Each structure stands twice: as C-alpha cells, then as structure tokens.
Amino acid sequence: MHVAFFVLLCSSLTRYLMVHPGAPATPWVVVLAAALALLYVLGPILGPRRTPAPGRRSATHGLWLAAVIGSWFTLVVLAPSFAWCAVPLYYTGLRSLRTRSAILLAALITACVVAGQMKLRLRFGFDPNLLFAPPAGAAVATAVFVYSQRQADRLRTVITDLVRTRRELAATERREGTLAERQRLSMEIHDTLAQGLSSQQMLLQAADRLWDGDPEAARRHVRTAETIAERNLTEARRFVHDLAPADLADGRTLDDALRGLADREASDTLRVHFHQDGVPVSPLPERVRSALLRIAQGALANIREHAGAESAALTLTYLDDQVVLDIADDGHGFDPADTPGGVRGHGLPAMRVRARQLGGTLTVESAPGEGTVLSAAIPLTPST
C-alpha cells in the first residue's frame, strides 16, 4: 500500500506538470506534493513500534493523519488528478480510526474524489460513472475491511483464550503429575522401606526377649535384621535414583526375583514357597515386573504382620494374554466386606493402584478362619 501511494503521487504530479507546465499554481502543487510525501514517510516514525488496535492510536498519530489528509485535500482542490491517491489514504484512515470515524473519513474522501473527477471531466460532459462508481467501490471496500477487522478481533480473542487455556492445562498437568509422583513415592516407601523397618523391629524385639534364655536364636534374629537393613539401604539408594527394584537388577527375571523373595521371607514361623506355571513371557515389560514384585512384597509383609499364618505360597502363572500372581496364606483371614472396596490399611490400596495403572485387576478372597488369597492379573498387551 505504501508503494502504491508513492506511485500514484508521482504519476499524478507528472501528469499535472505535463498538462499544466506554466500554470500559476504549479509551484504550490509541487511543494504540497513534496510535503505530502514527507508527511507520509514520517507516519511510521511517529507511530508506535507495534501496531495498536483501530481507534487506539496516539494523539501524535492523529495529528499526523489530519495533516496528511488536509494536504491531500488541498492538492485535489488545486489539481484534481491527485484524487487517485485516495485509495492508500483511504485504508490508512480505516486502520487508524474507530469504525464510525473511519466510515465518516471514507465518505469525505470519496466525496472529494467524486468532486475532483467531476471537475476534471466536466468538459467532456456528465458521466454518471464518475458520480456513482467511487461511492460504490468505497462502500464495498469499507464493508470488506470492517468485516475482516472484526474477524481479526475475534481471532485475536480466540488466540488469547487458547493461550490462557493452555497455561491452565499445563498447570493442571503439573499438579496431577505432582500428585501422581506423591502416590508413587508413598507406595514405594510402604512396600520397601516401611516393610523392612517393620520387619527389623519385630526381629529386634524377638532378639531382646531371647537374649538371656537363647542367645544363639537372638543372634540369628539380629543377623537377619542386619540383612534386612542392608537390603533396605540398597533399595533406598536405587529408589533415590528412580531405578528398578534391586531384585530385578542385573537382568534377573521376575521368576528369579519372586523365588529370592520367598527364600528371604521364609522363617521358622512362616514357610514361603514359590511356584511358576505356564510358559514364561520374554521379555516381560519392566513396569509389569516391578509392579508384580512390589505387590508380592506388600502381600507377604501383610501376611507376616497381620495374618498369623504358618505358610504362604506365591504362584506366578503365564497365560496367553495376561500374567497372574497369586499369594495365598493359611492365616486367620478377614471379611473383605467389612472395609470399603474389600481393602484395608495402606498396603492393599497401593497394590490395587499398581494393578490398575497397568490395566489389570486385584482381587481379594478371604473369610475369617479360612486364610486369604490375593490375585493380581496384568494384561500382556497395553489396554486401550
């Protein structure tokens, strides 16, 4: 649009000098054309660096626009051929003023163009096109510009809303991530460090009771507590570095980890056996291995602390579409209906969450005096 303005200004001045080389008004026309060009160039310099919305220009810019339009009006009066410069000025006014003011300015510019063209072509007779074509073109251009401006305003509003929504969504995701990480930390601590500390406490209490009567048994309890403490330290270090459970390190399979867990948890008062059924899936996803191992650790800890059982069995079964871990004991059992959802304490809810995160299920079958069977089933294909 800027290039078009200067092309039209130069062509209008050239035509005037060719048609009226010695006219008395020629010096004024040249001076006014130069002044108009200079004023037009000063517009971007005087205006703000960022283009504001229509109607929000500064007072300096308003004075500049008035000076440009005034110079152009004077030129049209002296030389009607300068009316062709109206198109760039027309859009300059539409961009700078509010809608009503811009329409009034467009009407005034259009009237000036019609008057100038009628004066220029009057010697050839009346031409209705000169009277009706400029207003019609100006009306269409104004309507298109106003509509485009409103669409741009709506789009700007939509973009602002989208940016705000995106920020809110990012904040929500951060909060959800924080809550999920807290839940993960609580489950990890419960299934590893807390259970280990509980076992150490029981062993040390037993050693204290037997220290005078059976020193050898007391020392065995202390050595076992030392082993548990060492293992807890290893788990804590791997836990800090967000690594897999220690039992699954160095490429060990889930079968090996569960077998080792059964051997460690076995004692004089609790026999623990491990059995594997079906064809092992290789490689079993790391998340599935970690979840099932943690479920087994939590279940055995509950058996040792609450069930009063003499024996427990871990059974890992590989089916076509899922892997199932069953933990059974012959303890005194409980009534799952006595607690919401068939769970109690923190251990069982944590196990249920681990299974659900992998698209699996956790079921508990128990009755007072009949022991307990806990079954965790994890699909081998990701759930959709």
Describe the protein.
- The protein is of the alpha+beta class.
- Helices cover 64% and strands 10% of the residues.
- The chain has 10 helices and 5 strands, in the order ααααααααβαββαββ.
- Strands 1-2-3-5-4 form a 5-stranded mixed β-sheet.
- Helix 9 links the parallel strand 1 (271-277) and strand 2.
- The longest helix has 83 residues, at 128-210.
- The radius of gyration is 44 Å and the shape is rod-shaped.
- The two termini are 56 Å apart.
Number of helices: 10
What is the H/E string? Answer: HHHHHHHHEHEEHEE
Question: What is the average per-residue confidence, as pLDDT, rounded to a whole number?
Answer: 80
The order of strands across the largest sheet is: 1-2-3-5-4
Q: How many strands?
A: 5
Helix content: 55-70%
Tell me the Rg in angstroms. Answer: 44 Å
Shape: rod-shaped
Distance between the termini: 56 Å
Q: Determine the structural class based on helices, strands and strand pairing.
A: alpha+beta
Largest sheet, if any? 5 strands, mixed
- Unreliable parts: 340-344
Q: How much of the sequence is in beta strands?
A: 5-15%
